[in-house]
Amino acid sequence: MFVIINSIPLDPLAFGAIQPDQVVIVANENDLDGMDVARYYAKQRGIPLSNLVRLNLPYEETISREDFEEYLTKPLKVALESRGLASTTRVLVTTFGVPLRVNAPLPNDEVHEWQADATEWYDAAIEFAHTIDTALSRTLLNFQKGAPPSPSLSSAFSASNPVKAEQILRHIDHAIATITSEIQTPSSPKKPMDQHLDFFKYLLQLDGLSAYTKYPNFKMPTHSQLTPDQLKTHIQLARLALSILVHTPSTQNRKVSYQLAQRFFGIRGVFQLAASEQQNLVTKDTEASVDSELSILWFGQDQYSLNGRIPNPFYAWYPSNTKSTKKDKDFQFPVLMVSRIDAPTPKLSKLMIDRAIMAEQTGVSGKAYFDARGMKSDGPLSYGDYDQSLRNLSAFMRNQTSYRVILENTQKRFQEKGEAPQVGLYAGWYQYREYEDAFSFNPGAIGYHIASGEAISIHNPQEKGWCKNALERGITVTIGPTGEPYVDAFPKPSEFFGLMLTGRYTLVEAYYLSTRHLSWRMVLFGDPLYNPWKGQALAALPDLQKYIPEFKALRALPPSPSDHLFPHPIQLAQKRRSQQDALLSQIPALLNTNP
Asked: The pTM is what?
């Protein structure tokens, strides 16, 4: 039975439906069962077999970073390019047998040397900044004769209480502002010019050549062969060159990076470069889900760091997206949407497909369960904020649909066997990697558990996490992380389900419109083309805005990600390489810049 109330008719042109030929299926040719699942999905959704890419992958859930690049991303790019699919593919589907997690890269001796060298640069910059701080304090005392002395920040710290870069820079900037005010005060006694010259010398040491553009009273020498505009251009070129060199580290590139940083941005630039290297060269947050990494298949090496996560440009609630309803947003690089058809067995993987298609024909029946904890919202993206999202979604579902809604709004969970039968929709907290067998799922059911590590394994029989066990018990769609994601990595339930209920978006589009990060640890399990409410929407924007505050920020429902125009990734990569080579060739001339 199709459960619906107040059906909202939609213009067919409003749908940005993904076409079968825009979907590429990724399969492990070493896994016969996985190949069978991949072919079955292609047949059921009418995806051309030429869009099925077979890769020589290990038969493990975890793949090393080195193997991920050698055996997955490189041959996948080659296959997409050689088959003419590079510019048309919008969705990748990973299937049973394709690794789930990618490990952090193994640091080698050279990387360890770079880490130590970055620390030496940072410490040397601290020491030099102490010298500038002390000198500026003396200069300020000379300018303010008779005033109480202004001690340097350095004097307040010791080896047991070390100063941090940001602290000493703030102290130096305060001294600079005070001295500048003294210089500009007409009523103050005339200061010796050598004091002015010493002050300007410190500015040049602190900020490099950018000091000439940063401080209005710091004039370029009269004999300069550069105009102020030419110097600004050189500074911008140096900044761009640094962004390339930092993301493509080598011993030579690092040497040139520090030369550029010191020349154009002074001690402040060395601080920033060393701190950036200290962050980018560590491997603490470099492990990820395979699927999230595949979203940035076409990104250049200089566009992101393996360490940490990057913003998802599709996310509908980023400020730049809430102000525009344009579907032809200018994307600088193509983002692929990725979904996984994978379950504990090949049979269950096929049933994920069958149940999605069945629900599109008959509707998602059953009840809507929301497991909140009674927490008050205590700031954006906090636990309380997510808890409120569950209550807001519950109120919307109760008032705008005919689903029976069960909201648990205490610390108690749905945990007793049979306590939550006939699930159509579910979202809630929180039992960490300890599936509680309270649920039975109707065909087409969509649900996820906001907890860490719920997708660490799908195939390990001993795995107790949510995703493996919910898939085993028949859920059609779920979401989970392969490690610690932090709460804001989960789509807010009110945003994700709100978009799904409009009927305008396929599963993978609603997910990418409501997830904030790429190159991270989240996985979407389900048929990416699944859209059970297409043409029979349960939600319109005014209704969503009435119950769900996040939707008030949207001027209109966001355009479908599949509608965006993207640059051809191969042509874009070639253009970027050409531009970067041209820029890097200017480095010798930049290093010889003299104002």
From this structure: 0.84
